[in-house]
Known about the structure:
With 221 residues, the protein is an alpha+beta fold. Helix content is 29%, strand content 30%. The protein has a single domain, classed as 4-Layer Sandwich (Glutamine Phosphoribosylpyrophosphate, subunit 1, domain 1). The longest helix is centred in the last third of the chain and has 16 residues, at 200-215. The radius of gyration is 16 Å and the shape is globular.
Amino acid sequence: MVLELSAESFGTFSMAARCERTGELGVCVSTAALAVGAVVPHVELDVGAIATQATTNVIYGIKGLQLMRLGLSPSNALDALLREDEKREVRQVTMIDKDGRTAAFTGKETVEWKGHLTGRNYATAGNMLVGPQVIEAMAKTFESTEGLLEERLMKVLEAGQKAGGDKRGKTSAALLVKKKAMGASMRPWIDLRVDEYTDPVTELRRIYEIFKARYLSVSKA
């Protein structure tokens, strides 16, 4: 049985993704619950990225990365975790590994609208949404954009919110991306969060633009 370290993040839409060019990995997420960035996204460079939501069990993130680090595919890692979890039907999980392989699960007892999509270098999911158009817009945006992974994930999150997002409203959002070293001014990861805000995705974009200008440019000195 999986160790129970659960938290509520009902009404969440997210994406776990990989940059095919650089191998960088990340998760973007937003919800009507508080502090989504503290529980849903889990990322390790050269291993994988995981979003664990609905009735969130962070063990899916912690142990899922451990299993992928040992060489298990996302599908095998997710299957192993689900077999151990008596409450799996209230979970929703997406995974992607360093090679772009994906896995996803939406429990039968998660709240409508609920569902997931996987594609080349991404897995997206949502529950308690206004409808399937939310994750459909997210998937289409990822597939149709190029550039830095963090920028693509911000656009994905904005597309999901524009399509309606969480049917209860908006409270928190987060962006977590593990980066390859690119210069003296490069930070090894982006970990940005907005909590208890009327329009968290818009505020996350504002913070991201400030962070990008200060920390993501390669030093020319």
